[in-house]
Amino acid sequence: MNEINVIGGGLAGTEAAWQAAESGVKVKLYEMRPVRQTPAHRTEKLAEIVCSNSLKSDEVGTAPYLLKEELRRGNSLVMEAAEATKVPAGAALAVDRGKFADFITEKIEYHPNIKLIREEVKTIPPDEITIIATGPLTSEALTTEIMKLTGDDQLYFYDAIAPIVAADSIDMQIAFKAARYGKGGDDYVNCPFDKEQYETFYNALVEAKSVPLKRFEDTKWFESCLPIEELARRGVDTLRFGCMKPKGLPTPKTGREPYAAVQLRQENLMADVYSLVGFQNHLRYGEQERVLKLIPGLENADFLQFGQIHRNTFINSPKVLMDTLQTIKNPNLFFAGQITGVEGYIESVGTGWLTGLNAARIVKNQNLITAPTMSAIGALCRYVTNAETKNFQPVNITFGLLEQLPVELRKKYRGRRERHQIQVEMALQDWDTWLLSINQTAFKAHK
């Protein structure tokens, strides 16, 4: 076996294919679009982002920053693309999704070690080195094959997409530009509410009609990506302490924080479209337009995309995978991306990065690797391969997953922010040493 298969051309799959190809191994990358589309994708481009264009925080000292920095130092294709196509987003890293997908698609298509095959894979090759990175929208045929392999019923949860509006349809006499607490400049458009406006919006939201979920009777929402109407039903003030919190957003006219606020994030480099942050929902389109136009500043908004709902599929990884992300039953078969139970774009990339290296190592008869215990990628792999299986749920990277500092350092650094900063610094030092030890000598040395 002198080549590997990667099934799925999303973020995890393209990263896996790139790492293996850069290691000198021949790769067949299978992507079923446009032969067969998914309910959420719109194009045939590789690494198409279908939900938020934010890759989350890139603020030094945070867990998401640690994950991104590990990948940057490991020559990640996705992080290179993100840097080349980023748009203003305060302390977050957000990208122009069209240019981002174009960048990765071109890199993959022109790599001499990668053959891109546009067809649906319906069976798992039994005797070939294969990475399954088909993401949360795995096709029915391949899902059936995966179920046979895992021996479990399909696991799933519902995920949602936020609405997008045309920038020139936002009333900037009402809305204003600012980032929360001034971090990153005037990167967001903010729509302020007074108490009466908020109560009117809230009542309309909780009474609005949703699209029925016909496929399953049981609805499993992912807690960090709940539809806004589901959050609203938890209490009248839930949104004001969540995605509509006004903290750190004083209005220019009064200098005071509003009663509530909706933030809109720039979607592309042209700055002509904005998405409503945290406003994923599954309301009927007519209901969305009616309710969302109650937001101050969006009374005449031109909605280019309404919220949508789609099914996400993932395996019970602790029962299926080793910490190298190989399957227990077949060491030549790997899983990467959201299908493993990591949630988030960069979390998916991290697993793709590791599986690409490990699959290439099988071809080259080298020992397989596991990420350092202090690292973010190591923490994610540890979670998906060792968590309790009964209530296994997808996770984002957080400090709660990372290995704690030694007791003496926790006593020395009492403040949480300071502890986290030390934790990140130590993790990156360990990461650099580890990269050198596995002969990843071309990594970027960021100061």
Provide a descriptive summary of the structure in words.
There is one protein chain. With 447 residues, the chain is an alpha/beta fold. It has two domains: 3-152 and 315-437, FAD/NAD(P)-binding domain; 161-311, Elongation Factor Tu (Ef-tu), domain 3, CATH 2.40.30.260. The chain has 13 helices and 16 strands. The protein has helices at residues 11-22, 63-73, 77-85, 97-109, 140-150, 195-207, 228-232, 285-292, 317-320, 345-363, 376-386, 407-412, 416-437; strands at residues 3-7, 26-30, 54-57, 86-87, 92-95, 114-117, 129-132, 155-161, 164-166, 176-178, 188-193, 260-266, 273-276, 303-305, 308-314, 333-335. The strands form four sheets. Strands 10-11-12-13-9-14 form a six-stranded antiparallel beta sheet. It has a five-stranded parallel beta sheet with strand order 6-2-1-7-16, with helices on one face. Helix 2 (63-73) runs parallel beside helix 10 (345-363). The two termini are 40 Å apart.
Summarize the structure.
The protein is of the alpha/beta class.
SSE order and pairing:
Blueprint: E1 3-7, H1 11-22, E2 26-30, E3 54-57, H2 63-73, H3 77-85, E4 86-87, E5 92-95, H4 97-109, E6 114-117, E7 129-132, H5 140-150, E8 155-161, E9 164-166, E10 176-178, E11 188-193, H6 195-207, H7 228-232, E12 260-266, E13 273-276, H8 285-292, E14 303-305, E15 308-314, H9 317-320, E16 333-335, H10 345-363, H11 376-386, H12 407-412, H13 416-437
Parallel strand pairs: 1-2, 1-7, 2-6, 7-16
Antiparallel strand pairs: 3-5, 4-5, 8-15, 9-13, 9-14, 10-11, 11-12, 12-13
Helix pairs in contact: 1-10, 2-10, 2-13, 3-4
